[in-house]
């Protein structure tokens, strides 16, 4: 009945600072064994009587199917709200309620083609595991990591171990090239002759990654950041407009149909200023007057 | 172990715990966590005649002990429901309470007409008319805000659902007198009432200084609304006991997170209880609440769940 997902009361075994972020390692038996790069976990916050009911979803940074303590999962957390602050204040041996692995993983190329992996801020978290998985399959892998400033980059050192090369950009020039990931991505695609670009980070970045990839003849696979309430497909809050193989656009759940989508299938034209419209041509779109 | 069976009109259920409409999709997702046939009934996501995209996002805002949602009744429409979802639930052995809605009273009837022809229909133990979803562009379309509209919809649904299959009207507490709406629904032939739907709310994003939800307003759910649900169930049950309303089963819903929460609704008069938003926190919440409710009934020494329904009215201290 598990359907590839489990719910377990795990145990935190480590919290480490990583620049502006926190890196958590949680013993979560059963999750690591089932997981693939690009999938995520949904963590409950605040304990059994919490006033914050909604689970917080984090992409899996790494998993270890068997370790000293049993299978572990690693996630990277930016403590910006009540739930994430509660998580990052946990101490080793505190219980953590984990549901996962969830969502669709990054699709892997059948052939050992060159790939570029692009991460914005701590959106880079799943890319190192992905890079290692791709290199095991013979792919040449380069990483492009971008953030507003140096402290908001995640995994630059780790990236040098995981990938064949790492390129860094910051908006303020405090590390690497001053500018955005999209400023350097085209050159990296051309030089490596990459046919797949994987992206994870803010929606505006994923849109430009998709556009740059298309301009240079590569396919973009992007893991979207949509706020979710449940992570398991029942609440219908994390939807976004995506065009299907039949050419029709539907509001699909990013937690079950995603979080990884082909970039050219996402209706970026409907996203603006923190609001995602329902495109007029979407299946079941509101008629005049709205629903 | 107490006898947990409960009666909803002519229908008997092995236990009184259900999912709440719109909080459990149509079963496949939660079936990964517990067998959907364990529940007294599985209440499906409200289905309308045509496919419907729902509203723009953000559609969700967390609140203290709750959340606002403005999904807007997204769904694939009754055809897909009848061909895919309902037969799947039937195959699992689930007892299904089907939530239906329409933009007009007649559309409710069209949805029911198609529903009864589904190969999964034998699994249906009742139809819940969602006349109270707050997420519609025109508040004037919330049928359950008006006794006349409520009566019109319920009469059509009752007329199209085969006799012997219960019809429940799902009501909103966002009205001046919920007993008047309950009276209209029961007068139009509803077997019973489901109470309550979400309450209309707004959250302001204090960084952007604009409403958090793209649709501005949303429905408030979660533990924060439990006392409102208990109040609504209490009021209609008290009216029934006073002879002001016909006696009818009530399904309590709103803010249930634990078996003790469910017991509050039962003691106030609910013959069955739905678990909604708590499922987002705990995917096995409906199954867990059933186990906890059984333990509560045992703890109080009752032999039958049915003996606890409405008991708080008998134990209320005289003023």
Distance between the termini of chain B: 36 Å
What is the CATH class of chain B?
Answer: Alpha Beta
Q: What percent of residues of chain B adopt helix (DSSP H or I)?
A: 25-40%
Tell me the distance between the termini of chain A: 36 Å
Q: Return Rg of chain B in Å.
A: 18 Å
Largest interface: A-B, 43 and 52 residues
Number of domains of chain B: 1
Secondary structure class of chain A reads alpha/beta
Low-confidence stretches of chain A: none
Give the strand content of chain B.
Answer: 15-25%
What is the count of DSSP helices of chain A, taking H or I runs of 4+ residues?
Answer: 6
- Side by side, the strands of the main sheet of chain A go 4-3-7-1-2-6-5
Provide the gyration radius of chain A in Å.
19 Å
Low-pLDDT residue intervals, each spanning 5 or more residues of chain B = none
- Cα shape of chain B: globular
Order of helices and strands of chain A: EEHEEEEHEEHEHEEHEHEEEEEE
The CATH architecture of chain B is Alpha-Beta Barrel
Label the structural class of chain B.
Answer: alpha/beta
Furnish the topology, listing elements before pairings.
The complex is a heterodimer of chains A (291) and B (319).
Chain A: E1 6-18, E2 21-27, H1 31-34, E3 40-43, E4 56-59, E5 62-64, E6 72-77, H2 82-88, E7 95-102, E8 115-120, H3 127-136, E9 141-147, H4 156-162, E10 165-170, E11 177-178, H5 181-192, E12 196-200, H6 203-215, E13 219-223, E14 239-243, E15 249-253, E16 260-262, E17 271-272, E18 275-276
Parallel strand pairs in A: 8-9, 8-12, 9-10, 10-11, 12-13
Antiparallel strand pairs in A: 1-2, 1-7, 2-6, 3-4, 3-7, 5-6, 13-16, 14-15, 17-18
Chain B: E1 6-8, E2 11-13, E3 17-19, E4 42-43, E5 60-63, E6 66-69, H1 78-91, E7 96-100, H2 105-115, E8 124-130, H3 147-160, E9 167-171, H4 178-187, E10 192-195, E11 199-201, E12 204-205, E13 210-211, E14 218-221, H5 226-241, E15 250-253, H6 259-268, E16 272-275, H7 278-281, H8 285-299, H9 311-314
Parallel strand pairs in B: 3-16, 4-7, 7-8, 8-9, 9-10, 10-15, 15-16
Antiparallel strand pairs in B: 1-2, 5-6, 6-14, 11-14, 12-13
Helix pairs in contact in B: 2-3, 3-4, 5-6, 6-8
């Amino acid at each position: 009945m598990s359907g590839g997902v489990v719910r377990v009361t795990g145990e935190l075994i480590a919290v480490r600072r990583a620049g502006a972020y926190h890196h958590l390692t949680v013993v979560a038996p059963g999750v690591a064994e089932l997981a693939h790069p690009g999938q995520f976990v949904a963590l409950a916050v605040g304990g059994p009587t919490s006033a914050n009911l909604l689970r917080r979803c984090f992409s899996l940074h790494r998993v270890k199917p068997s370790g000293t303590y049993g299978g572990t999962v690693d996630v990277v957390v930016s403590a910006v709200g009540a739930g994430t602050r509660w998580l990052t204040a946990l101490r080793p041996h505190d219980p953590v309620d984990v549901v996962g692995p969830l969502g669709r993983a990054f699709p892997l190329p059948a052939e050992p083609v060159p790939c570029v992996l692009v991460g914005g801020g701590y959106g880079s978290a799943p890319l190192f595991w992905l890079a290692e998985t791709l290199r095991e399959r013979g792919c040449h892998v380069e990483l492009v990591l971008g953030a507003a400033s140096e402290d908001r980059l995640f995994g630059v050192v780790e990236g040098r171990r995981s990938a064949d090369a790492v390129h860094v950009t910051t908006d303020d020039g405090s590390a690497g090239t001053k500018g955005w990931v999209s400023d350097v991505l085209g050159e990296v695609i051309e030089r490596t002759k990459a046919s797949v670009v994987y992206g994870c980070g803010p929606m505006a970045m994923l849109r430009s990654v998709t556009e740059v990839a298309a301009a240079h003849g590569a396919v973009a696979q992007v893991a979207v950041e949509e706020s979710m309430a449940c992570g398991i497909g029942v609440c219908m809050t994390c939807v976004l407009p995506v065009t299907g193989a039949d050419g029709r656009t539907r509001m699909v759940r990013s937690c079950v149909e995603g979080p990884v989508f082909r970039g050219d299938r996402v209706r970026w034209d409907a996203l603006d200023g923190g609001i995602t419209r329902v495109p007029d041509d979407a299946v079941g779109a509101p008629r005049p007057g709205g629903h | 172990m107490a006898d947990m069976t409960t009666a909803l009109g002519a229908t008997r259920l092995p236990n009184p715990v259900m999912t709440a409409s719109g909080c459990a999709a149509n079963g496949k997702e939660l079936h990964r966590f517990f067998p959907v046939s364990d529940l007294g009934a599985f209440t499906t996501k409200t289905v309308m005649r045509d496919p419907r995209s729902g509203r723009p996002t953000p559609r969700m805002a967390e609140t203290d002990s709750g959340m606002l949602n403005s999904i807007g009744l997204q769904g694939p429409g009754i055809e897909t429901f009848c061909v895919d979802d309902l037969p799947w639930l039937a195959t699992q052995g689930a007892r299904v309470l089907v939530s239906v809605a329409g933009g007009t009273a007649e559309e409710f009837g069209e949805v029911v007409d198609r529903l009864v022809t589904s190969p999964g229909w034998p699994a249906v133990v009742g139809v819940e008319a969602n006349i109270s979803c707050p997420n519609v562009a025109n508040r004037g379309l919330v049928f359950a805000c008006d006794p006349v509209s409520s009566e019109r919809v319920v009469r059509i649904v009752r007329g199209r659902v085969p006799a012997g299959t219960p019809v429940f009207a799902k009501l909103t507490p966002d009205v001046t007198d919920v007993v008047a709406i309950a009276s209209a629904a029961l007068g139009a032939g509803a077997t019973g009432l489901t109470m309550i739907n979400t309450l209309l709310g707004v959250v302001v994003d204090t960084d952007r200084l604009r409403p958090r939800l793209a649709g501005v307003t949303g429905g408030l759910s979660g533990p924060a609304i439990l006392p409102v649900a208990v109040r609504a169930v209490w009021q209609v049950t008290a009216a029934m006991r006073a002879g002001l309303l016909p006696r009818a089963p009530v399904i309590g819903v709103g803010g249930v997170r634990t078996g003790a929460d469910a017991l509050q609704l039962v003691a106030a008069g609910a013959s069955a209880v739905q678990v909604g938003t708590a499922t987002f926190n705990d995917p096995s919440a409906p199954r867990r609440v059933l186990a906890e409710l059984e333990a509560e009934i045992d703890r109080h020494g009752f032999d039958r769940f049915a003996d606890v329904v409405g008991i708080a009215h008998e134990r209320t201290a005289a003023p």
